[in-house]
User: Fold this.
Amino acid sequence: MIAFLSGNLESLQEDAAVIDVGGVGYEVNVSSEVLSGLSAIGVGNTVRLYTYTYIREDTLALYGFLSRDDLSLFKLLITVSGIGPKGGLSLLSTLSAEDLRFSILTGDARTIARAPGIGRKTAERVILDLRDKVSSASASKDDEGFGTLAAGDLRGQLSGSEAQAQPSPAADAVEALVALGYQRAEAARAVKKCGEKEDTEAILREALRFL
Assistant:
């Protein structure tokens, strides 16, 4: 298995990148977010992609990501029935990894279903299968600087030993709003607008202003 590729960025295609590693060009399937990141680095410069090798009968394909954290999320996604590598890449092209985690943790099937090829039932299956796994992975990666829930919005609210012992303040706030009668999706969006806060009551007070 190829764990990562490090070499010169030879070219960018619509949904793939070619990495020159020691004179050998590897075509790697990437999400639109990764494509944007590679474009910012620029063709001809050195890049590193963490890769997943997909082998099925007569198919051999590489899928690449800019961080191990995103690769781990991709591997979780393709364990869900009905989501293969293309579906996983579609999800990560529509939503950032952080936003996708947030949607899974808060049960926001509508947002997940925005990805091409992902219907409502599949989105609900993603939530059912991965909610606990995403929460555990987020907490366990804290020491590596990973495990952020929504960069720039809810960063750090699932980190630290406190997060391992109990749900995050953001998740608690969403559940409280659902108990008050709000739809989970609108509750999640309101909580996300509150930014970084470690107090559930403070999140609730501010979130209610957005509802």
